[in-house]
Specification:
Length: 306
Amino acid sequence: MKCLVTGAAGFIGSNLCEELLKQGYEVIGVDNLSAGKLQNLNACMKYPEFKFHQIDILYKEIKDLFVGVDYVFHEAASKKTICLRNPQMDLLINGAGTLMMLQLAMKNNIKKFIHASTGSVYGEGQIFPQTEDHPLNPCSYYGVSKLAGEKYVALFQKMGLNTTILRYFHVYGAKQDDSYKGGVIAIWLKAIFTGTTVFIHGNGDQMRSFTYVKDVVDANIAAMTKGDGEIYNCASGIKVTLNELIAKLKLRYKFSVTKDDPMEGDIYKFEIDNNKIIKDLNINFTDFNTGLDATIRYYQSLYSKV
Ligand SMILES: NC(=O)c1ccc[n+]([C@@H]2O[C@H](COP(=O)([O-])OP(=O)(O)OC[C@H]3O[C@@H](n4cnc5c(N)ncnc54)[C@H](O)[C@@H]3O)[C@@H](O)[C@H]2O)c1
């Protein structure tokens, strides 16, 4: 079975490629390396069943890579921090790019298109806990463009393409970008292990549903055979504020914290209902302490080598 993973050199894409290869799939990884890193794919490169192509999903040459593909995992995206600087790019990649991937998937009669979406499509929560039926009122350029992507997926589902949409929430774990564009846990662990200040944007009361990357990978693989035509909150259901996370890390490490301006488009409260994904896709979400410990070990070892 042949899988095509877009955004393969990114955080989630690279973890997904590695697990697919471990499970015996042939994997074509696609990434333009605008945010992803080749070193994220070091483990994958050891498999003869893995082929990497540095190509933009908007380039027409990508069509040749779809020949003989059974499953498409669409992870490539222009992310929130980038889009605040370039919203047109966001719409182009997350909207038009997704449309192109769907057209190619349809043309090549693939078995399933599994789409990475985001909790940002809900915007600021109105009804808690937030189920998949929560109103969709994105409040960032990123959220609007990802919602456009979702709507294209829904359209192609109606036209006969088999799809599943997974809405991710605050994914964390090994290989996440720890630059200012990355995820909060990765950024803070880098600051702690390099002895620099930890910055909190806003008052720190933002509630997050941190979800371990292994669980997101498991959900993608489960969606290959289940959840046809469905949308799922792919969230651990954990409720942690940023201030609580700081307190947890302070129990182990000494570091300074500085409050900074709130981030534009940041959503304050996520309280996510994950009953549907647990029931249909059988996902056992990792508890926060276990996932955080594994992530700490990864960044500690990364920065002990610097
Ligand atoms: N990480 C999270 O917490 C989170 C939360 C919600 C949704 N998501 C979604 O999950 C997916 C993966 O996110 P991630 O955290 O791994 O991000 P990431 O930035 O690490 O990975 C995205 C990858 O896509 C690549 N890419 C971007 N534009 C491209 C293009 N035009 N052509 C080819 N490749 C391109 C980047 O180089 C990068 O490697 C995205 O669709 C994102 O919207 C992530």
